[in-house]
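Backbones bend. Our protein:
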Amino acid sequence: MPGLKLEHQAINSLQRIGHQIIQFNRWQAHTAPITTVSFDPKKGQTIASASEDGSIKIWNQDGSQLPKQTLKGQGKAVWSLSISPDGSTLISGSRDGKIRLWSKDSTGQFKLQPDRIFDEQHRHKSNILAVAFSPDGTVIASSGEDAKVSLWNKDGTWLRDLDNSQDKHKDAVYSVSFSPSNGSELVTAGKDGIKLWKIDGTFVKNILQTTTGAMELLIVLMALTLLPVIQMEQLSYGNQTALGLKI
């Protein structure tokens, strides 16, 4: 069966990668499962983690100190976050379908910007599973359980949905990522496949179409193989409350 073969290929690839990973640090981070983590892309010395406990925590890379900062105000479980390329802004997506924006103040602390509320008329109807900044930090992409992929200006103004009626996702969209060179294209990965788009909303092509349970595994592989290799430590998380730093 094609679906079963695909799943075996994904598992084998992940196993090969896993044999090369060494954990060198681990620390208690949250009181509920950790949902996502992100490095500050500017310097790579700061880590942000989010959890079902509704908080976002900012850490030194080595985890040797208490959280540098704890961000609250989500109200619901936080399922996605991304730090801007210049490290000055953090966006988060939560179970209530809202995207929130946090900016660094003069002391280097992230502060919630309540006046930067993303357009309520075009908000997601359910859990936001992924958010991402474009390489220049001017455009934000979001995706969710409602099968919608949206593009926004960094000030929260809605730009467009990637909703070509024939080619749009029909189920939850787990991951979004801009092309690293100029951000002119966007790849989205969900239960029903992986798709490539222009940021003007033009559908380019289906990279993969599937209805099998292997999709979650393939999303991980996409992040490791189709996107540029980042020569830095990687974070592990999952249905647990601790962070593990691996190379």
About this structure: The longest helix spans residues 2-18.
